[in-house]
Design goal:
Gyrase A, domain 2, OB fold (Dihydrolipoamide Acetyltransferase, E2P), 4 domains, alpha+beta, 16 helices, about 30% helix, BirA Bifunctional Protein, domain 2, globular, 5-stranded mixed beta barrel, binds aspartic acid
Length: about 600
């Protein structure tokens, strides 16, 4: 062994012991001609080495540089000048001999918490970035989450079963990465977007509780914080109903909270239907750490047909913006009634940005003295403003923000505005965790480009039993694209659920279809003819004929879960070797071209457009 101890473990209790440490040189400080201090770092911590006169002389001839790999033997001593900031701060090693195990080039950035290296440089030299404490902590947390999940699942009889990476396409709504086959020239494997069909086959095989912490691959345009390869905690259970799954995985997340963060999340996880989430928060993954619910002043007649809007509060005032809008929604922002003109103008500009896409913003200030001030005073009497404010549950001191426009855009905008205001008000604390189940998602989603219905989750998700008839007997042809919301498919709900943590979808799954006939109907509803069904999913349809049990499952976004538990917005920080926003590994410089010989073996000729 190169060492007797790590750089993080020695304390005053070991005073007088002879030890050998090995690690990387963090800093070298020479005091006069007789003393050199070296901070030696490894995965476990930092220990101060004290080199006396002779060794300092040796170092003068053969200087140590940052990140040199050093082995040092010496005696543990109590420091006179203690450092309370590090666990080994009370001791130092009085070195008797050392050996440079390897030199290091000058690192391109400093290996410390507040490094001087920019993102790109740190990605290029990720192996050095990984030496930094901040990154190491994230990977440690990731491993802790991994262990906690495995422990829980193991205790609950789940079996980790590996599934292949070289497969045929699995539709999860993204594009596949494909891999050419040399032995079957002209044919391609797809990398799994998830092990979805395999885990279902495992249920048919009788492995009634499966899990895997597994890589998934999706060739998507990488929006802000996505990775082309990411990790899921992928699970499936047989002989279960939705309620069983919700309970089991609520348990898993709580157990992860406990093991990783020491948090006792004892309260029952809140539940909300998809429709209520959209209606009350404008979002299917609402952040419920704070309230600020949406007041629906006006909605189109085709959506949320069971819900009542408050149109009477705004109608009849001759205010064109509201009269002509499809949807009018509001939030009451706590404690902001004293916003200046400049501040409300800035908010108006904020909602007009192309990402939000609103034409303007209407506000009502509920002043502390009980009076009301609004940008639409001309149209609405104080009495009417009060009625709107009351409906929005606004209190004195609140600022009501109102958006008007087309349904989908406006609903999304009010959700974005709600999140923005909460961020500004410090209501999104990364030390507070709020879980939520969102249930009863729509089964289908309208794809404008193709003027057709696509599966909102994936095609293996079962419809609510009472709506199976609608699915089977209605023709999926959408004659009038503008009115797709009137099509019967728009209202079919799925036995599908998402787990939301602090406004992030951390997991999603469904109770599956397990009868061949219904699965065929589902494929047909998605516009797949029989031939295509057999070509793509013949194996699954076939398996369903051999005693497929009722089953369902869920998959958690492992990287995202780690990032949230680590109080970070970025999943990249929790992945050892992540890709950048263009899907490149800048350290490997991948993707890259391949040799002519490889093309020949694959019998592939490039014909780039
Ligand atoms: N395979 C699904 C996904 O990746 C999860 C599931 O339905 O279990 O989203």
């Amino acid at each position: 062994m190169y060492r007797t101890h790590t750089c993080g473990e020695l304390r005053v209790a070991q005073k007088g012991t002879e030890v050998t440490l090995a690690g990387w040189v963090q800093t070298v400080r020479k005091l006069g001609t007789a003393i050199t201090f070296v901070d030696l770092r490894d995965r476990y911590g930092i220990t101060q080495l004290l080199m006396g006169e002779d060794l300092t002389k040796q170092l003068d001839e053969n200087p140590l540089g940052r990140e040199f790999v050093l082995q040092a033997t010496g005696v543990v001593n109590e420091r006179s000048n203690k450092n309370p900031n590090i666990p080994t701060g009370e001791i130092e090693i009085t070195v008797t001999s050392f050996k440079i195990l390897n030199k290091s080039a000058v690192p391109p950035f400093t290996i410390q918490d507040d490094t001087d290296g920019g993102d790109d440089l740190r990605m290029k030299y990720r192996f050095l970035d990984l030496r930094r404490n901040a990154v190491k902590k994230n990977l440690e947390l990731r491993y802790a989450v991994n262990r906690a999940a495995r422990n829980y699942l193991h205790q609950n009889n789940f079996m980790d079963i590996e599934t292949p990476f070289l497969i045929k396409s699995t539709p999860e709504g993204a594009r596949d990465f494909v891999v050419p086959s040399r032995m079957n020239a002209g044919q391609f494997y797809a990398l799994p977007q998830s092990p979805q069909t395999f885990k279902q086959l495992l249920m048919v095989s009788g492995y009634d509780r499966y899990y895997q912490i597994v890589k998934c691959f999706r060739d998507e345009d990488l929006r802000a914080d996505r990775q082309p390869e990411f990790t899921q905690i992928d699970c499936e259970m047989a002989f279960v109903e939705q309620e069983d799954i919700l309970n089991m995985f609520e348990g898993m997340i709580k157990s992860i909270f406990k093991d990783v963060k020491g948090i006792d999340y004892t309260e029952k996880v809140q539940r909300m239907t998809w429709e209520d989430a959209m209606w009350n928060y404008g979002n299917d993954k609402p952040d419920i750490r704070f309230d600020m619910k949406v007041l629906n002043l006006k909605k189109p007649s085709t959506v949320y047909t069971d819900k009542q809007d408050n149109a009477t509060l705004i109608n009849g005032a001759d205010f064109k913006v509201f009269d002509e809008a499809e949807t009018v929604v509001a939030i009451a922002v706590p404690g902001c009634s004293e916003y200046s003109r400049k501040q409300t103008d800035e908010l108006t500009e904020w909602v007009k940005r192309p990402q939000i896409g609103m034409k303007g913003l209407v506000f009502i200030k509920v002043n502390a003295d009980g009076t009301y001030k609004s940008s639409v005073d001309k149209f609405y009497s104080e009495e009417k403003l009060k009625a709107i404010a009351d409906a929005a549950n606004a209190k004195a001191g609140d600022l009501i923000l109102i958006l008007a426009g087309a349904e989908e855009r406006t609903r999304k905008a009010i959700s974005d505005l709600r999140m923005e205001m909460a961020t500004r008000l410090g209501l999104r604390k990364d030390t507070e965790f709020k879980l939520l189940w969102v249930l009863d998602f729509p089964l289908f989603e309208y794809d404008e480009e193709g003027n057709r219905w696509v599966a909102r989750h994936h095609p293996f998700t079962s419809p609510k039993p009472t709506q199976i008839e609608t699915m089977i007997y209605n023709n999926p042809v959408i004659e009038n694209a503008a009115e797709y919301l009137k099509h019967p498919y728009a209202n079919i709900k799925a036995n599908a659920y998402d787990m939301v943590l602090n406004g992030n979808e951390i997991g999603g799954g469904s109770i599956r279809i397990f009868q061949r006939e219904l699965q065929e109907k589902m494929f047909a509803a998605l516009g797949m003819n029989e031939e295509e069904q057999l070509h793509k999913f013949g194996f699954l349809l076939g398996a369903f004929e051999y005693g497929a049990p009722p089953h369902g499952g869920i998959a958690f976004g492992f990287d995202r879960l780690c990032a949230i538990l680590g109080g970070s917005e970025s999943i990249r920080d929790f992945i050892a070797f992540p890709k950048n926003n263009s899907g490149r590994d800048v350290m490997l410089d991948a993707p890259a071209t391949i040799d002519e010989k490889q093309f020949e073996e694959l019998q592939i000729k490039l014909n780039l457009k």
